[in-house]
Design goal:
The protein is α+β, with helices and mostly antiparallel strands and 131 residues long. The chain has helices at residues 24-28, 37-50, 53-58, and strands spanning 76-87, 94-105, 108-121, 124-130. It comes from Arthrobacter pullicola.
Length: 131
């Protein structure tokens, strides 16, 4: 099993309603940083979908970043639901995004629910941790 390869015209997995090329790809490519904590959350979800561990590590705050990240292609991410956001806008320095990420693994459905904390440093949003 392998991770899917997205074309720029494919619908973005973060369910923003945009194409991958008009949404998360620009963040993954490093063209521009995510402007909000929610946009970073969505782009990180899409990185899990595509197996882009380097992007996940790049957008993880150094205080909590693991040395490596091994993603399992057997976990197939299906849907992202953003439940709420607190702050995390272009002028904020902190933000919180609560979400539910749905997946299938070994033919069984699953969901990862998390309240994620983000910091904006030097104009870039970074994932800190989740509970």
């Amino acid at each position: 099993m392998t991770f899917p390869v997205l074309n720029s015209s494919d619908r973005c997995p973060c369910l923003s309603g945009e194409t991958y090329g008009g949404c998360c790809h620009r963040f993954h490519a490093g063209s521009v940083p995510a402007p909000t904590a929610e946009a970073l959350m969505r782009s990180r979800y899409t990185a899990f979908v595509t197996g882009d561990s380097s992007y996940l590590l790049r957008t993880w705050h150094p205080s909590a970043r693991p040395a490596r990240l091994d993603l399992d292609p057997a976990r197939v991410w299906r849907r992202l639901d953003i439940m709420s956001t607190q702050a995390g806008g272009p002028l904020d320095s902190t933000g919180v995004v609560t979400f539910a990420a749905h997946y299938r693994e070994d033919d069984a459905p699953g969901v990862q629910s998390e309240r994620s904390s983000f910091l904006r440093e030097a104009g870039r949003w970074l994932y800190v941790d989740g509970e």
